[in-house]
Amino acid sequence: MKRYIPFLIILIILTLTFVFPSVEFKNSGHPNFNTGDIAWMLMSTALVLIMTPGLAFFYGGMVNKKNVISTMLQSIVCMVIITVLWGIFGFSLAFGDSFHGIIGNPATFFMMKGMLGNATWKAAPTIPLLLFAMYQLKFAIITPALITGAFAERIRFNSYIIFLVLFSIFIFSPLAHCTWHPDGILAKFGVLDFAGGTVVHMSAGWAALASALYLKRRNDANHAPARITYVMIGTGLLWFGWFGFNAGSAFGANALAVTALATSTTASAAAGVTWIFFDMLRGRKPSAMGTCIGAVVGLVAITPAAGFVSVPHSLAIGIISAVVSNLVVEWRTRTSIDDTLDVFPCHGVGGMVGMLLTGVFASQHVNANNTTGNGLFFGETHLFLVQLVALVCVSIFAFFGSLLLLKITDMISPLRVSAAEEEMGLDISQHGERL
């Protein structure tokens, strides 16, 4: 019976496409569409999408040679599954009519209805609503892909697909709604998250820690990276795509996008060089792997702050995040936690550091849309306390919610491969393919 479930799902999707064609037009008077903004957001959407193949290379180069294809596919498959889910009701869950500020109404944009014509989103009035939806889709794609580094080399592919769907529905969508919808509870509370420190990196980081704890250690946790050159290629693609990730979150070709682009690249550079120097201070050789990891940590940490801080403060964010994540990676290696590719120390901790430092360095002179206040650096405490409360609440929700989803998934389909399959390698045992 289980073998027919995928065919049943495809049949349901085909039926929906005929029953609910997206032909309803929404007109909002005379929208102030700006062709420059539309062009930039089209480019940003493509830039963010390329981050997922970049992540596939980044993770794929770090694992054993026998698990490269499996690890990379775990990222790529998010592009196809989450896109379909988003088109049916995922966008509505994140950005539909608010239900008590927690989740969107799945019927609001069901099957992308009402997305054509002059429809716009409140926070992005110069671009079509459909473009806004496609841009946000790319964030929904990469978030569950980030988690895969924590359980690499030991998860059944079929079970992973179930988990990523559940995570997208019950963890990512509520957090996106709470943080980025005008009626979301975190948005109303005054939380600042420019491009996904909370929604993307903290949620993925805490889910990664939950996954590492739930699936327990690999039978053989010692391995040599398959291709460090893959890691370097992945880093370049991630850094390149991150300009769309952060600068695109200004929703226009404007000065704020320029600020976000500048703070993103300077934070990444500062974190990369800090990782190298910090390793050297502790008697280690400056490595390609460390440089790449440091650069990505800087990108993670600046994400929530990119449109709220100045360039000098972005340098500070990059330096601080690199030191903190480096120390947490070192701590993790001395525990029994088998977070295969250190997703929690890099993405989870990096995201949390970025959230807190947004509360330290954010300035209303950089972004006038910041109505919560200035950061601690400017003598105000309110914003920092808001960020701290949000960090605690989101951490609890993402960690324990992910644990629950892992348990549910395990009940539906066992999560771990057998010892023999793990020894064989997931490329062969799960996909019948070899690098």
Automatic annotation (TrEMBL):
Main location: membrane
Pfam family, one: Ammonium_transp
Subcellular location: Cell membrane; Membrane
Ammonium transporter AmtB-like domain sequence ranges: 39-433
Superkingdom field: Bacteria
SUPFAM superfamilies: Ammonium transporter
Listed GO CC annotations: plasma membrane
Gene3D superfamilies given in the database record: Ammonium transporter AmtB like domains
Membrane-traversing stretches: 38-60, 72-95, 127-148, 160-182, 194-215, 227-245, 251-278, 290-309, 315-331, 343-363, 383-406
UniProt-recorded Gene Ontology molecular function terms: ammonium channel activity
UniProt-listed InterPro entries: Ammonium/urea_transptr, Ammonium_transpt, Ammonium_transpt_CS, NH4_transpt_AmtB-like_dom
Membrane protein topology class: Multi-pass membrane protein
PROSITE patterns: AMMONIUM_TRANSP
Keywords for this protein: Ammonia transport, Membrane, Transmembrane, Transmembrane helix, Transport
Family, similarity comment: Belongs to the ammonia transporter channel (TC 1.A.11.2) family.
Name of the featured protein: Ammonium transporter
Organism whose genome encodes this protein: Mucilaginibacter pineti
